Amino acid sequence: MTALLEVDNLCKHFGGVYAVNECSFTAAEGQVTGLIGPNGAGKSTAIDLISGFKVPDSGTVVFDGAATLRRSWLPGLPAAWSPPHRLSRRGLIRTFQTPREWPALTVLENLLLAHFQPGRERFWWSMWGPNRAEREGDEEERKRARAILDEFGLLELRNERAGNLSGGQKRLLEFARIRMAEPRLVILDEPMGGVNPVLGERMAAAVLGFAPNGTSVIIVEHNLPFIERVTDAVVVMAEGRVITEGPFDTLRSNQAVVDAYLGEMPSYDDLDS
Amino acid sequence: MHQALLTLGFGLVGAAILSLSALAFTLEYSVTNVANLSHGEILTVGAYAAYLVQQHGGGVLVSGLAAAAAGGALALAVHNGVVDRFVRRGIGGLPTFIATLGVSLVIQNILVIIFGASNLGYQIPQGAPRTIGPFLWTDTEIQIMVSAVVITALLYVIIQHTRFGKSLRAVSQNRSLASVSGINAHRVAALTWLLAGLIAGYAGFILAESVGTFSPYSGFTFFLITLTAAVAGGLGKAVGTLVGGVIVGISLEFFGGYVSASYNLAFAFGILALVILFRPRGLFVGGRRSVFE
Amino acid sequence: MIAYVVSIFTEGAIFAIMALGLNIIWGWSGDFDLAYYGYVALGVYMTLVLTVGPAQSPTEYILGLSLPFPVAVILAMLSAMLLALIVGAIALRHLRGIYFSIVTLGAVYVLYIFAGQFVPLFNGFNGVSGLFNPMSDVLPLDFNTYPYFYLGLCLVVLVVVVVLVTRLSGSRFGMALRSLREDERAAAAFGRNIYATKLKAYVLGAALAGLGGGLFAGYLSAFNISAWSPTETITLYAAILIGGRGSTRGVLVGILVMYMGLQEATRYLPEVAGHASYAPAFRVIITGVALVLFIRFRPQGIIPERRTRDGDPSETGGTTVSAEPAVIAPAFGSGAT
Question: Residue A191 class from Cβ within 10 Å (0-12 exposed, 13-18 middle, 19+ buried)?
């Protein structure tokens, strides 16, 4: 099993507070890796750093065999941290704590735009491209988008403006967008947040549906039963550091994890009843 | 050296006016999170109100009070008639900002219709310049500076030591939290705008006094400098804004005196652009803002 | 009377071109740019100094060439684009919302002050004049028929612009710009280079400002700083907002209502002896009131931005575009605030 993402000694501080402190972990290819920890553990900052939305003070991230750095445009200057769009083009896509759809665009347009094709979005191609269908997203793509929407039960809503969907539907739309984009790795930031628990099984199926389609998953989530259900391995963070890594089952007996959660880690059965 | 001190003296007059205007602007911003683009017109209306009072034989004191009253009334009207309605509807900062630009155009052109677009001036004797230390000031200029200091001190007392001031600070920190804890945020905001309008109206009067002439557009032009001072000091931060006003006012006077007064506004915007690009939270707060932060 | 109608429509066509450019920047890309009229003014000035020949003392201005009018307009467009590239490269890097607006407002005031005070640039306060009926020397037109020709020219250019803008609006580039307006972070997360894309839109909008300015130069024949003010952008914004932000047809309707309709409606205001005409001031007041009321009550405008509808996949598989808006758009998406 090869590591798709290797995070090494990542540090980031705000003022005097270290949000992420010497954070190191790996996520394996073809797996669902959970990233958990109590509030304030630095999970959100860590994924902001990994996805390029924030720049770390020190440390490295290797994604798909290459560091997430961009060579400087001036020879001699040090390489800069990759901005989000470059990482996204390399196949690392993230979601956000609140669903970030493009509200005034239709559901189908949200899907078509999720699959970024640099050539097509170029100004000249848009102006003088071969024909209208190709400029606006060709029929093949629309078919693929419709199939994915159908899978997530959103097909009927494809002409609705995305801003009018319910919270749960927006989450499903987000999953559909990821499927459309087909990244190598997706980082899901609290996908169960604000979602009716009734949808839990559907969400779990969606998360588990990524790997067979070639997308590995890192998932940040507070809902531990959900984590237990979907992950192959988990990384536990507390106070900016990784305290342990391993399969979920091994955690219950790990004293450090129990301490981090103040011994309040619930079991799957407790929450289920 | 003497020349520089003289320039500093004139700069202090400009700084006094600018600080009052910027303080009023920042107060408006702090309670509603709306950059009020019709702020300049509050100054203009103050200047015209004082003009009307003088036409009917009023003295300097009455003129100043009338300017403040007119400015306060206008600010309250803009808040209750436009800004508060937008805030209640949850319309964001930028659309409301655009709407206040519309308000600014309306007021400017109402003034054009009533008074004409040409420059007017007061009939107040400036008094002979007198030498105070290294400085050279007229009576009017001394009045301007003293009144600005008094108003600033009063404002400090109001904000720091009254119940209203406490609510004002609470609302500017976190409007929804203040509402939850039993403060009527709309009422506090309205009163704050009234207070800001009183100050801005008076600032319009002393601005017209010090420049000598005014027109329906002079408030907007001065507002652009006000914006520079307020942003340099940190939008919504009273003390920072005060310092920003003093720094910008004095540096403008030096630029005008030693380079060219015609390009004053361009210079102000140069400062503004640099501040926004490198210290977007104001000169006194560190940290660069990225698109995502 | 007919001459009046011709001039109203010529102006309307020119303003429509400018408004379509601003609609790219604000309507699609979502940036409230207050420098826009500066690009228009630069287009006017550049067209003038490229066509009217060398300056005669005591006037002073740069260049002073006698190029053919169309060439001058193209060069004017390019200079507007260059200025927009510089301003946009600085302002779009880190700034959004009111900070972006304030910096662009500053940029246009700096241009305004230099145009008015720095005489060697565009002859300072007195401005540049002398572009009388461009191209009338190479065309068999007399004094009476020329306005019809110029109206025709402006309308043809407008039609070309509308066709190109419509094409662009539905394309992937146009949609990508909408995604930036709606949610920048998500757009970046899905691979879009926000800065580069927004900058492209900004320069593109300024190109139309330069084009409109070039045509305006031929219409006005002279230009100085009393003929424009930085806040004139607001009238264009009012037209876009009222017509329908983001919608090409909406912008054209907005121009029809806000420029031509308003001009006509205030034409018969009573004049007062010894007073300048009230009409211009009234027009601005109505513009301001309309701006406030539309933002409050109908932010999507008269003709809301339309989204393409996807047909029933079980049918031939073709995509149909229906005229009905799926749902009324929130004109100020989360990305706009």
Answer: buried
- In three-state secondary structure terms, B4 is helix
DSSP, res A106: B
Residue that has been written with the tokens 């015609």 in this structure: B262
Q: Using the beta-carbon criterion (under 8 Å), do B273 and C276 form an inter-chain contact?
A: no
Q: How far apart are CA C195 and CA B14, in angstroms?
A: 39
DSSP SS3 for C328: coil
* pLDDT confidence tier of residue C322, bands split at 50, 70 and 90: very low
Please choose, from the candidates B78, B79, B45, B46, the residue with its C-alpha nearest in 3D space to the C-alpha of residue B65: B46
Residue-wise pLDDT for B239-291, tens only, equals: 889 999 999 999 999 998 888 888 888 898 888 888 888 877 777 765 444 44
> Which residues fall within 8 angstroms of residue A169, CB to CB, at 6 or more apart?
A154, A157
CA dihedral A135, A139, A140, A145 (to 10 degrees): 100
Helix (H) or strand (E) holding B55: helix B39-55
Q: Is B125 exposed, middle or buried (0-12, 13-18, 19+ CB in 10 A)?
A: exposed
DSSP helix/strand/coil, B156: helix
Query: Given a contact as 3+ CB pairs under 8 Å, which chains touch A?
Result: B, C
Cα of B290 to nearest chain A Cα, Å: 9
Rounded Cα gap, residues B221 and B265, in angstroms = 8
The chain B residue lying nearest C195, using CA atoms, is B291
Residue of B79, B101, B114 best to disrupt the C interface, most CBs of C under 10 A: B101
Q: How far apart are CA A31 and CA A3, in angstroms?
A: 10
Which residue of chain C comes nearest to B267, CA vs CA?
Answer: C110
Helix, coil or strand: residue A38: coil
Q: Roughly what angle, to the nearest 10 degrees, separates helices C97-117 and B264-278? A: 150
Mutation to test the C interface, candidates B98, B215, B248, most C Cβ within 10 Å: B98
- Residue B121: strand, helix, or coil: strand
Q: C130 Cβ partners below 8 Å, 6+ apart? A: C48, C52, C53, C221, C222
Considering only CB atoms, C337 lies closest to which of B94, B103, B291, namely B94
Q: Within 13 Å, how many C-alpha atoms sit on residue C291's CB side?
A: 26
Query: What is the pLDDT at residue C327?
Result: 43
Q: Are C102 and B227 in contact (CB under 8 A)?
A: yes
CB B116 within 8 A of CB C275: yes
E strand residue ranges, C153-281: 222-223
Partners of A45 on chain B (C-beta within 8 Å) are none
CA atoms within 13 A on the CB side of B190: 14
For the stretch A235-273, pLDDT in tens is 999 888 998 898 888 887 787 777 777 545 454 444 443
Q: What is the pLDDT of residues B16-28, one digit of tens each?
A: 999 999 999 999 9
Cα within 13 Å of Cα(C69), Cβ side: 20
Strands (E), C176-292: 222-223
Residue from A126, A112, A134 nearest A180 by CA: A112
Contact C291/B35, CB-based, under 8 Å? no
Phi, psi of B7 (to 5 degrees): -60, -40
Task: Using only the alpha carbons of chain B, give its radius of gyration.
Answer: 19
A132 SS3 class? helix
Q: What is the CA radius of gyration of chain A?
A: 20
Long-range Cβ pairs for the range C155-163 (8 Å, 24+): C155/C9, C155/C13, C157/C13, C157/C17, C157/C211, C157/C215, C158/C13, C158/C16, C158/C17, C161/C17, C161/C20, C161/C208, C161/C211, C162/C20, C162/C248, C162/C252
- Assign C176 to helix, strand or coil: helix
